[in-house]
Predict the 3D structure of the following.
Amino acid sequence: MSLSRVSTVNTYDRALLNIQQRQSQMGVAQQQLSSGKRVAKASDDAVAATLSERTQNRLTRTEFDLRGLEASRRSLAQAESTLGSVSELYARVKELVVQGGNGALSASDKASVANELSGIREQLVGYANQKDTAGSPLFSGMGPLNTQGDPFVEVLSTPVTGTYGPDGRAVNWDAMDGQFAATPTSLPRTVDGSLVFGVDGSNIWETMDRAIGALESDLSGSALKSQLDQVHIDMAVHEDNLLAARGKLGDWLNRADSMQQLFTDRTVAYEKENSELTDVDMLKAVTAFDMNQTAYQAALKSYAQVQKMTMFDYLR
Amino acid sequence: MSLNIAASALTTNQSVLQVIGHNIANVNTVGYSRQSVSLSALEGAQKGAGIYGQGVNITEVSRSYDAFLARQANTTQTLASAQALRYEKLQQVESLFPLGSGSLGTMVNSALNAWVDVQSSPSDSTARQVVINRAEELVTRIRDTATRLGEIGDTAKIQSTEVGKSINQKAEQIASLNNKISRAMAGTGAPNELLDQRDKLVADLGKQVQVSTLQAEDGTMTVFVANSYPLVLGSTAAQIQVEPDPLDANRQVVNFVLGETETRIRDDLLVGGELKGLQTFINQDLPNTQAELGRLALALASGVNEQHNSGLNQSGAAGGDFFTVSLKAVPDDTPPGLTIDVSDHTALAASDYEMTFTGANTASVKRLSDGVEVATSSGLPLTFDGLTITQAAGATAGSKFLLRPAADAARTLDVAISRPADLAVASTVGISPGATNTGRVSIEAVSQSVTPAGALPIAIAFNAAGQISLAGGAFQAFTPGKPMAINGFSLTLRGTPSAADSFTIDTLPAGAEKFNGGNAQAMLALRDAVTFDGSATLADGYVSVFSSVASRVSESKFAAEFSQAQAAAAETQRANQAGVNLDEEAAKLIQYQQAYQASAKYMGTVQSMFDTLLSSFH
């Protein structure tokens, strides 16, 4: 055996193998350039691929958090605008109560005031049972207790002691008390309606029934005044409750904005991280491709030249 | 005399030219070793004052062969073949575990994340349907992946049977060559071509299974597999037989068959060759991958089922199972009628188990992934690695069973729910704040966490120091937003409590199921529950499956590339020594052609000398 001796066939084989390797390297570089991905499968870079999977999970999670947040925000915005309408109705109720307290009004005038109050009372039931676009009640606390999903139900036949107004009618809270919490990643979708509209026996409808009952029954001036004064006092409490609820909703909606910003930033960060892990560095890839191309050409050319040389050419 | 010299010179040089021609002719013949001719001068004869040489003679036509280089080329090649084949198979496995948005992990997360929409609107049947659809997509994918893994394994098994056949053929051929060679060696010279053929067969055999060889005096070669099993001994050949493992048809064993005797060759004794690559893939890589994928499926199914059982569907009934899996012992003999259940889905290991009965009701269990005995001659029912094994009847001592709970789960996972209304979105419990609460504590989540859970109602109280008491227990520190476990229920509160604030957890009032999303919320919390090896969460479960597939493939890739480079280097060394170099042959051609021409010229000279001598007689 000598150090310098080579086998002709083995030289061919090796040269061919090298050319094939160059070609496949160039293929890889080309693949990376065209797909923009450095890590297309696990074995390309096991660590980056695994980390990228984890990042992908976080990314998906954030997307869903964002979706949940958007749903909450829609509901909360709807609740806020509903409470805006409720607030206007409260103002009208107060006006009507002042108007009804005017001693110069005839019985029929008082009846028409009471009528309008009854209409508002109906409207308020509708607002309090308002549902969001997905059909979930907005003011149901920890959830309504009936399949219609109405947190406030009108009761006619079972008067509660101390119920005012005609027919012993009442609007009762038919949902679970309690307020869902806002967490760092989510906001509640419902508001505890019993805190907004009041608890059974002293809620807004009870207050209105007191006014309606007083106006409908032919009370004397001082008796009517004392009833309507009490209604005024109660309305102030209801307005305070309403303001508190609107304040909380406003706060949550503000928080929704900042949370959305946070989630979007986070999504961008995860996408960036993912891209750093698996995407190709174009500059590097182009350079690598160029280098591979040069090497491939050199391999082809030298192969052709070297293989041309044989001593048999000189045997004449 | 001179004529004799001329004749020997002509014939010898012609013979050498013939060998050169033979070399040139076989320049591309695989396994051919170049041949060279040794010449020697014929002994001289005493004639008068001196000794005169009598011409030239061929001593030997020998092939250029270095046993050491050949062995080195063979041993490196045998490793390279094993690694290359294993890598090829693992690449197929790798393609089943894609990256990014199409990955199984994304599907697991989508299936769990889909509960977000249900939680935010529990009455929405579209959102409920989406949960079911996502789950169905996921189970289809997991089952498909498991099926494809099985198919890849089947192909590998067929391939290894073929490799076994091919090994046996080569053994036969080597044996018959041994026979011919020993007869030729007894005669005149070394049968170079036969030796080359045999060496090539040994090299080819080495690509399929690692062999070691021993050359005897008579020229025959003994070929051993797995160090000590004589595959070829003189002119007789034994056989390699590849067959399914009698206990587990998914695995396979290699047997050495000599006459009537059958011996099992342990996998670790096979060092190289395609057979080794296939055995490693079939008996280790594939079962491990199946077990890892399966553990994800089993933990997901058990975890989700437990929570689903702890909730209420739209009609207020208990949720029941969300997923179904079917776990069976192999072989499924009765008795003992083994039943495998998951008792703790967070303690599962990614492995198969071998269970050996030591008595009618006692058994030992070995975890196959690391060979650890998880139970030693213990009485049934047995509990280990989050599994509980029960038996219906007594077993025969010594009977063996294979348990593949994880792989079974991946193969049989299915969704048990089809109607949106059957989805257990509502919790079994509700919470109500005390009527006199003045603090700003709000409720983040309340749900049942295990089935069956403890008795209701449960009272929650706060004291002036802001501490909390659960179910009448001692006051302890309250951390807002941290889930608290109480008798099988889970509660999370937020905000600042006031003294004497209270809450009561009680059965969910009738009619509240439709709009309650408590169980959906608990289902979402599963995503972050530590489920795998005490560190990975359920949502990240796929990451560990993926990372082990990825590291296995890339390890195999590097091993294959490294061993390939080594084999190529060794082969180059061998070929450089034994292979034909055309330039060398060309040079020799000129050399001997000139010698031949000179010999012919010499013969002409001798002839003209004779002619001169004869003409002088006129």
Summary: Residues 125-186 of chain B form the longest helix (62 residues). The mean pLDDT of chain B is 90. Chain B touches chain A through 77 residues (CB under 8 Å). Chain B has eleven helices and 32 strands.
